[in-house]
């Protein structure tokens, strides 16, 4: 098939995709995949303390600044980005957001979805986003549900997609979220892009070194000891024709 | 007590109860239990691809056809069936649906509830249904909640029920859903009925052989090697007067 | 800092806090902590069968009686109590309730939150309350979310709080709820207060001995074999300067 | 089949069977089952502190006293008892002990085995005993392994047994041992015998009240609220012809 | 590197590798991998009931027949086979067996090891074999431990190997063994070989259909619905340069 | 009691205690605790590849060098060190080693034991050591088991100890070992000592940065964001008189 492969990231807040899977995004974009990022919220209430330290900051302005940061980072990484305009802390999703996600997943004929872990007691927004990703995935497979431009049952509905693999990306504290990585992605070749994307998010400065160190630590236990790696956990079995070593 | 024992199945889509517990239904009906099936949705969006392959298919028509299929199967098995008219992919439940379920559980004085596993990442509707079943169970026990014809606190409310046992029936991929069967039900004597019920659902032909094979496999590991068995997992301890062998 | 330490209990029904953590409440109140209890519902539908056995009982009256019981118990224990007026069996929470909880957590600058286990298949209200507690906790930390009188980003929002530790208190059947206690609190010195508080809840007489026995059993496995103990499980790692023995 | 049903208990130390399943033993003996208890060790090193408080106590004498206690308790309960003479703290098992266990399981054609949980970090002897029980069970099923008087492949070996159900009995702290009870046995009718058996073990006085309370607590959550119950967890699925309520 | 890739199977009994990974063996042999099978025992005591039904059967003769069966099956599949001559039911491993396994893993510079699940309460031999496989793996990595012909620290010891991936193959009852497959291997192209290998083991006729059905069921849930598949679970993360879809 | 508190580390190889808990050792030594380290083996076979790269290296010489390294590190940290002379890759423990450990635990009246996680599929020696630590702990509590100089039942045996808390220290890959930290120890004040101890182990240079980064990462999620922290998981509940915040 000569369709481009595609990767869709579904994240709760604008920063999440940068810390946790910017390497995967940049790498797959370079490999020729189409990559789209869905930010369910701007995270301006819960993840932008630094912005509110500025005099005169308002919530709308914080949202706008967070959006600009995220757009900049996506551009660096070679991804499209979609803002679903939800409110954070606490995030709620609805039918209209689901429709948008279905359309995106179908338009791209998503092969892989990256999202949060289902368990994250310290950040329920992440749990909401992970569940939303699974709802969007199953809805995209539903022949009788409309949505998306790639029309499949043309007299009626949009084309469905198959069953894309879903990976959890690494949460802030893996063990708290029952995250057990089974896939380490060597991101050394795109590290500079990830670091540049990270620097697009000045509103969360404490994250910078933390996620650089995390990439170094994951690299140190990956085969071949790459300098930087990201960790993922798949939710569904993968089908293979040869056992990966 | 000479009340008939009763079994209530609470499932997300019309097909679910057939693949996963038609044997239990037929067997307990033959044993003299009252059996009622609650279908929270028709599953016409997500589980009826074959219907939408027919020219001119519409969603209302697909619903109707799914309903007819399910009624036919229930009749074969000897069960009542209730349609709660929810939408599938994604299923949402509400207070009115809960009221209906409470009334059914109380009217039948349910002894056993069969439902989905609480975890099912590939099909969130199943998770919604399992949670709904637990909500309905606890609500049926609540003296101060009205509903049902068997009036218990007659000046005010319906009769409550005790704490019926809940079993998860077998999901499509057991390990993905953390399903660990603890009860294997020999359904050999009612296999012909299950097979006939399965054949009432032509809209999902791929399921036929899969669930026949599953019954054979579960039989092969059950005591006495019955030809067909269904697997279940109880959610609550059972109280006994002698240890089951 | 000479701020008083504070403990906030977030429970589904009015009785829950008494059975499960009245000892912790009384003990910390005596130790000089501020203690507040949030009852999300009165539990009058599902946990007051005895009240409905009285002729002429109505739901509003049952609510009122449950409220009075709970206030009395809180007074005995030395805690404030807040009623959030939700309906039980099944409990639903909303944005307004969340706002109230955020304000309380911030006003008290909560150090510790006690709530239900996240899993409780026999009582979904408890799961709802546990999730709500985690939503409230994260929302209280969000600089961009308003609420609470202790103004932090004064030009705009309320003062946030740090990350309070959260403990699950002991559920009715620990193993059903995946409760694995890691902290046993010696409540011998305040047992009389707990027992007095328990006696404030005549609407649930079966609980009295059950929870006294539970306290004895937990004491019997605690270091030093205190006469009474309560069991808790922390959700987040604690930071220490010396390893607890 | 008119063979008597049979129950075999495999426990690490002489006291274990009394605290944890004396009710099951007495009840099944009354129901006409044959019941045999295997004590892998006397537990004189680790579970008889009180004996060593007596002046002049020696290890051989402590063993003897423990043996007498256990025999007395078994007699009260109506069970045979076998001492395998292992050393405790730490217990090690060997091929000869396995041969003896195989012979017993085959001679009785065991239907049910009761043993410790596989996880018990506070008492590794219990883990050793649980593993030994599973080794004995599988060895008893092996046609090509000799042992037992009931000769099956008569030209060569002993008769094998089927696959008896195995239950973990309740450990001292259930949650530490990942014990999740699925079966509550009403032992009210034999409580006096259990209490009498408990009183046969004066060397462990702290256990008496603890296990009485435990029986009361398990009863309080069993269906019908029996006065006393014991909790068990099965290791293998059971095959049934009707779903237990 | 132009070294042939290699796969080493470490199994408790001679039949195990046939039922559980004959497809993987045949497939990788066809793909040009070197494949070696280590049978720790012949399984003649516990897994050859049919042989003992023959008059005059002795244990040495049963061993010999089992060996011949296994050699035949290995030949069909294109694998070397090594017999470690352990006793089954119950299997024990020792230092000499470990030395042999280390030599094989090093000689082949194993890339992948297939073995049992670590948990298998119904067959402790399988647990012993799984643990042995992990011991052999770590020992093969130890520079200071001798063994193997490919000399690495030539003045002293054998060449070590890297960290080969380990997969659990599918146990008889997946859920009992906490087996959660993450890799489905399409074995349709080599099915005839697997079926031929299965037919080499007439001493266990009940397994034939069971494992054919299992392959069909795993195929039905694999991507692309291959006719036959085998399921595996990896124990260690894999390092990748692109996320598997 | 004015007995000094004491900490005993039980580790498989000489390096383990340095990477994983040197901070805890140094900190508690400074706090006035007695600290003893038990190294079950030198780890010269599996964890000293660099030594074997030196021409003329022999196994006895590697052992000696590893011993010297470990002694140096212990001295830096302020701990006693005991070598149990076991062989590594694979480590086996025996009764004599257990006797020595019991004597040490009793002589110090150990309050806290630090050891490996019970699960570590990549390094079975670690599992062996963790199990040994639990065996030693329970044996030390056994009144009827001799050992140790602090005589308790003076006519016969050594003084027993109470039930010391056991913590798992952080394994190389936490998630592979089911390590879920619940305790973060601020080691900033002793970091220089830990770093100095690390530098005493030139035979494993790849570990240096990895464990420095790990300490930084654990610090970043600890309360108060200390510069360096170590993570631990307790195995048994702790008894408290006030809930830790």
UniProtKB/TrEMBL annotation, chains A, B, C, D, E, F:
Pfam families: PIG-L (PF02585). It comes from the Bacteria. InterPro entries: GlcNAc_PI_deacetylase-related (IPR003737), LmbE-like_dom_sf (IPR024078). This is 4-oxalomesaconate hydratase. Transmembrane segments: none annotated. It comes from Pollutimonas bauzanensis. GO terms for molecular function: hydrolase activity, acting on carbon-nitrogen (but not peptide) bonds, in linear amides.
